[in-house]
Every structure is written in C-alpha cells, then in structure tokens.
Design a protein that fits this description.
This protein has one domain (10-117): 3-Layer(aba) Sandwich (Trna Endonuclease, Chain: A, domain 1). The protein has three helices and five strands; from the N terminus they run αβββαββα. It has helices spanning 10-30, 65-83, 105-117; strands at residues 35-36, 49-50, 55-60, 87-94, 98-102. A hairpin with a 3-residue loop joins β4 (87-94) and β5 (98-102).
Length: 120
C-alpha cells in the first residue's frame, strides 16, 4: 500500500486564508455574499472572489507590496478580460498596513463618480 501524504505549499495556504478572510470581511461590509473561487490559474480564471458581477477581485498576501502589485495587476487584467468585468480591484493583505486596495485611475474615478451621483 502506498501512502501519499500531500503537503500544501505554505504560501498557498497563507493566500487561501487571506481569500477566505477577505470574503468574510467584504460580505459583512457590503452586506452581500462574497465567496472564494476555486481553481486559481485556470485559463478561464475570473478572479479569487465571486459576488460582485461587474468587478474582478484578485487577492495577494505578500510582504513585498511592489511585487504584489506587479504580479497582481497583470493577473487582474486577465481576470477582468475573462469575466468581461468593467472593474477590477487588487486587494493586498500586508502585515504592517492591513488590507490595501489597488485599482486603475480610470476605474476608481468611474466608481467615485457613480458613488457621488447617488449622494446628490
């Protein structure tokens, strides 16, 4: 009998926990169900979290913020294209700074304009 014992990559486990934590936080803060997507890296990858139909969400839990942005934005742009989502946001969990959100200027200003129109 062969005993196969698979040990997951510790960085993957850390990333999985960050995705689950962020899904819970966003669900509570937005009052809408957000759930973790499975099958990262697929050709049809549409993001790490699901529950926002017009937004692709990429999650990184990295110490190096610059590297997280460099890799995460590239992945996010591909996920937006796959999802056909006009918006995308890269969330980075950092041990010192907490959760950070990164998006493009165009997407942020569009969201801000929509938000302020609703408060006039």
């Amino acid at each position: 009998m062969i005993n196969l014992h698979v040990v997951a990559n510790p960085n993957k486990r850390k990333g999985d926990r960050a995705e689950l934590q962020l899904a819970k936080l966003l669900s509570e803060m937005l009052n809408t169900p957000i759930r973790r997507m499975l099958g990262a890296g697929r050709a049809d990858d549409i993001g790490d979290l699901d529950g926002m139909p017009t937004t692709a969400i990429q999650v990184k839990h990295w110490r190096d913020i610059t590297a997280a942005i460099r890799e995460g934005i590239t992945q996010l742009q591909e996920q937006q294209k796959n999802k056909q989502a006009p918006d995308g946001v890269l969330f980075i969990k950092h041990s010192k700074h907490g959760w950070l959100a990164v998006t493009t200027l165009e997407q942020w200003t569009r969201a801000e304009n929509e938000r302020t129109r609703g408060h006039q």
